[in-house]
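Q: What residues go here?
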């Protein structure tokens, strides 16, 4: 970053402290570039005309080296030389491409979620159409599944036995595979009572 800053003007003085902080001075203006935001309650003990942070307090980058150079050039009213301007343009184009790619992935993910929700709704509608008018058979199946599940030695085994019995018998009696939870959702969604 020091070379980029020195390329702005020959009179710019750049010093790097052992902490990683960079100090820039030009025409009696002082700039401090720190690799982290100040910690809470430390106060502002630095005398500088401009403070720039490259990372926030969590370590996430908030200003790239090119953004820092742009801010300093703007603050000092300096023109950015051609090669540095080209590097900045490439950097900005790369960031725009990454943002576009991220937006596209988010759009695809949103579309996938809508398709998944639609499939679930259709599945529950199908369950409702199968069990509609067969409440007695469904109650009997739930009772049998509970009795079969009670043979398990502990809570998790009882639940596992109850669910596996229900799935198997629901498939045999109604023709589709569903868990007790799927049936409960279908009844909740589509039962008018």
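A:
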């Amino acid at each position: 970053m020091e070379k980029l800053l020195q390329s702005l003007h020959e009179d710019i003085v750049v010093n790097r402290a052992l902490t990683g902080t960079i100090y820039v001075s030009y025409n009696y203006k002082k700039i401090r570039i720190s690799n982290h935001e100040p910690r809470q309650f430390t106060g502002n003990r630095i005398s500088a005309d401009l403070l720039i942070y490259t990372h926030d307090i969590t370590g996430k980058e908030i200003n790239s080296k090119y953004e820092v150079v742009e801010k300093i050039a703007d603050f000092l009213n300096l023109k950015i030389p051609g090669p540095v301007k080209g590097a900045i343009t490439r950097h900005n184009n790369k960031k725009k491409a990454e943002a576009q790619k991220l937006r596209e992935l988010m759009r695809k993910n949103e579309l996938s979620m809508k398709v998944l929700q639609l499939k679930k709704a259709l599945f529950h509608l199908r369950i409702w159409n199968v069990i509609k008018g067969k409440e007695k058979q469904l109650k009997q199946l739930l009772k049998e599944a509970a009795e079969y599940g009670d043979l398990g030695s502990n809570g998790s085994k009882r639940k596992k036995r109850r669910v596996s019995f229900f799935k198997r018998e629901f498939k045999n009696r109604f023709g589709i595979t569903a868990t007790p939870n799927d049936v409960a959702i279908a009844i909740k969604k589509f039962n008018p009572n």
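A: Context that may help when evaluating the design: Residues 11 and 97 are 36 Å apart (CA to CA). The first helix runs from residue 2 to 6.
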